[in-house]
Request: fold
Amino acid sequence: MRRILRLLAQLLLPPFLGGCLFLLPSAAADGITYTLSKSRWLLMWAYVLGIGPSLAYAFIMDWSYRKRAPAHTWRAVWLSSLLGALAGAAIGAVAVIGMMPYSAEGHLLTARVYLGALYLGGMGALVGFALGVGVKVFATVWSSGND
Reply:
């Protein structure tokens, strides 16, 4: 896969895919038209919160492709999943802390931070896996000359 396309995909796709994955239960429950009407704000916040981890993810994966795990290997896919989980957990913790005002009940805030990190960490692992498989498929196709 061409490096600039891969970097752009790894930078711009994770917040979009994570936002879409986050909206899936809402679309099933409320209907697609209502979900689409509120999705632009969620996607905006997904990019605001996710551009930093996506930038780190893109640079770590680019380094990994050059040094440790070529893009067409499963090792790169699993590294992508791990980085996605870490990025999702960080975004979840930051989002929960930012949305919750500090209260005297610190243990409730701590539990919510852990739950937010666990929930978005799982979504991040799914997004990282999907992106890793996509890069693997395109790297395999383009390296074999079948483009």
Q: What stands out?
A: Residues 3-143 form one domain. Residues 106-143 form the longest helix (38 residues).
